[in-house]
């Protein structure tokens, strides 16, 4: 029984190859069009590494005043990490305010707006948020990149091949 099943499987696979697989053509223009049409699937999203200083005093007015004072001190060249360790009420104060690396698309809109035009090493003005007033520093930015066609060509060929083979 096993030999018969194996023999039948080989015959079926050979027939499928002969009448279906061998007739599927993958043309370069078709691959390039798929790449252009599905560019988002081959894009690595933008990432940012952030540090924060969270100020949360008894009242919003006190918090805002303290946050503005810290902002002025940052503009005068004081260390972000030192000020975060000293004044931040955030959970990461003891690490200099570093909160980690995030995909920009996964951050909340307030944070994205606060860091939108900041370059590496720059810091934001104090932002009113749920936990208090927050100052952000962009420690690093990794821009969105599109993987080159040559790198994803085999993956695209497989996708097109599977899509064409199914109906056949």
Topology readout:
Blueprint: H1 2-19, H2 28-37, E1 43-44, E2 47-55, H3 60-75, H4 80-87, E3 98-103, H5 109-115, E4 127-129, E5 132-142, E6 145-146, H6 149-165
Antiparallel strand pairs: 1-6, 2-3, 2-5, 4-5
Helix pairs in contact: 2-6
Write up what this structure looks like.
The chain is of the alpha+beta class and 168 residues long. It has 6 helices and 6 strands; from the N terminus they run ααββααβαβββα. It has helices at residues 2-19, 28-37, 60-75, 80-87, 109-115, 149-165; strands spanning 43-44, 47-55, 98-103, 127-129, 132-142, 145-146. The strands form 2 sheets. Strands 3-2-5-4 form a 4-stranded antiparallel β-sheet. It has a two-stranded antiparallel sheet with strand order 1-6. The chain is elongated, with a radius of gyration of 28 Å. The two termini are 29 Å apart. The model has no long low-confidence stretch (mean pLDDT 89).
């Amino acid at each position: 029984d096993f030999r018969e099943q194996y023999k039948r499987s080989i015959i079926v696979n050979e027939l499928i190859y002969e009448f279906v697989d061998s007739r599927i053509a993958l043309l370069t223009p078709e691959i390039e069009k798929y790449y252009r049409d599905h560019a988002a699937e081959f894009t690595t999203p933008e990432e940012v590494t952030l540090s924060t200083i969270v100020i949360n005093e008894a009242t919003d007015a006190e918090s805002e005043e303290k946050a503005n004072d810290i902002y002025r001190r940052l503009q005068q060249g004081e260390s972000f990490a030192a000020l975060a360790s000293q004044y931040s009420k955030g959970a990461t104060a003891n690490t200099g305010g570093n909160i980690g690396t995030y995909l920009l698309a996964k951050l909340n809109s307030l944070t994205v707006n606060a860091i939108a035009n900041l370059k590496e090493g720059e810091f934001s003005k104090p932002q009113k948020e749920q936990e208090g007033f927050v100052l952000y520093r962009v420690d690093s930015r990794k821009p969105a990149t599109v993987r080159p066609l040559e790198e994803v060509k085999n993956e695209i060929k497989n996708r097109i091949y599977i899509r064409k083979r199914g109906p056949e």
